[in-house]
Amino acid sequence: MTNAPNTAAPSSAEARASAGPTTARWTAVAFVAAGLAFLLFPLLRPWPDEAVASTSLAVAFASDRWVVAHLCGILGLALVAPALLGLRTLLAGAGAAGGRRPGVRSATWALVTAWTGAGMAALYFGAEIFGIRTIAEAALRDGDLSLLADVEALRMQPWAVTLFGAGLLLLAVSGVLAAVALWRAGAGPRWIGLPFALGLVLVLPQFFGGPGLRITHGFLVAAGCVLIAVAVGRGRVHNSSPAVEKAVDNAVAR
Questions:
Q1: Which pTM does this prediction carry?
Q2: What distance in Å separates the CA atoms of residue 193 and residue 45, rounded to the nearest whole number?
Q3: Gap between the terminal Cα atoms of the chain
């Protein structure tokens, strides 16, 4: 009597194992891209003296560098949530059958706060890109540098600045929650998410600093993103601990 070929569908554990590397690659790419975008924002942004309305200030505001730099800032904000979605997916997929890996709940709330915060903050970046550039172009076209006074009025418009501040505070919360998730999950060294958390916490305060401080902050966020990407790429996040792996093996054997 011949044995029938084994046509059973892959177990949930096997499905998670096959999906893990692909999700890990895209998650690592998203973290690296987010970090690079955060770094390019202050590196590419022109830094004229904004204390005095001048032709050089208007030229800087109207330049393509101004637009590209702020687009990088928006891109950095936009990529944090997909990166955290991948992180949450990997942590959830690393749990044993019927179990839940520590850190998944924190990662879930990190994703929610990041998505909400980034959406709110990105609205302000849109005004920075196109509103300020339009004012600067009008000042250069009309030869009236007094129009640059409207830049501060645009930046400090109550609804705009409130949404921006609230969005960046939510982004800071998401960074802390992501670090907590990695700490609880034991995904590599427990401190692996701390630079990323610190970078997001400082996003709002660094806007009050000069070019040197803001560029340094860009390097901090980039480093934090790369550290998590390396942990993800090495399987520290989606590979389970020995105890979890044994539980999964037992579940599959049954």
A1: 0.84
A2: 27
A3: 25
